Amino acid sequence: MAPFFGVLLHAIGGFAAGSFYAPLKQVRRWAWESFWLVMGLAAWLAAPWAVAAMTTPRLSAVLATMPPRAAFWCIVFGILWGLGNLTFGLSVRYLGMALGYAVALGFCMTFGTLIPPIFQGKLSAILSTASGVTILGGVVACLAGIGLCGWAGMSKEAELSDEQKRASVAEFALGKGFAVATMAGILSACFAFGLAAGKPIAELSIEQGTRPLYSNNAVLVVILLGGLVSNAIWCLILNVRNRSFGDYVKGPTAEQLRNYILSALGGVIWYGQFFFYGMGTTKLGEKYDFSSWSIHMAFIIVFSNLWGLYFREWRGTSARTKRLVWLGILTLIASTMVIGFGNYLAAG
Fold it and tell me: What local confidence, expressed as pLDDT, does residue 129 receive?
């Protein structure tokens, strides 16, 4: 049952990733860069260190003795992923939760799933087994589901007036949104590469007494440090450019406290995605752990589209467009089941 438990863990992580922007939408009178920086400090610094300290018995020893090459590539991929995450936030800003997630994560899922086995020379071996073919079939189904969600987004663009689009997404801009979402998807796939590069750190963590289920938590500390660097630098640049430093200190106390809590809550929810993702990969097995990324991306898109429906981002669209959204969601759910079954075949 381990592969199916792994899929469940990815579902929880996908819910966290698909939901973290919901609290951020409730922040009032702060510039985007201000609440994004506060969110990032919680997501990429406070939460990973706190969780790693609780689940890794000798965290300081692990970090002090980790292989320099592994640490270097974790940070590099973390910085690149951070740039992708930065543009991802902009894609949601310009496209909304439903369409922004679908476009960005479509690219992210494809690159993050297929490039690691290609780079490691394992793709031909994967294609030679029934379980491997089944898993790749699930990846294709996942891409089809993402495509349906994107099709629904373009249908929305054609059906609604500019005023209707901005009523659901205040800064809706299709061209700009697609550009940053494409960049976000490609760069965000670097997180999967970072986890692959950090395997020696995870193995060292296990040697130091960490349960295998939590072995990736020490790796997350290193990767997310790189992500924090790229995000913090850009947010501070925007604070200077837009003269928004006052966001952190000005305004009614109650509103300021509410903004800090909502931003930090978004960060903690965000970190939950990779906490559960890291555990899910350990349950799916090393042979086909590349499929974890597909499952994770699919669940994120499922839950982000559900949030998009909740926030009425599809208000005013035709019944056909809404059917496309639901068909895309159901296809994504089916793809995770296919991938999970492929991992079950491999485990058997």
Answer: 85
Question: What pTM did the predictor assign?
Answer: 0.71
Residue 216: which residues within 8 A CB-CB, separation 6 or more?
Answer: 195, 198, 202, 278, 279, 281, 282
Instruction: DSSP letter for 44, please.
Output: I
Determine the pLDDT at residue 71.
96
Total residue length of the chain: 348
Residue 28 — left, alpha, or beta (φ > 0 → left; ψ -120 to 50 → alpha)? beta
Given a cut of 80, is residue 146 above it in pLDDT? no
CA distance 50 to 38: 17
Domain boundaries defined on the chain: 2-347
Identify whether the C-beta of residue 332 lies closer than 8 Å to the C-beta of residue 129.
no
For the cut 90, the answer to whether the pLDDT of residue 103 exceeds it is: no
Q: What is the DSSP letter of 251?
A: S
Check: CB of residue 205 under 8 Å from CB of residue 215. yes
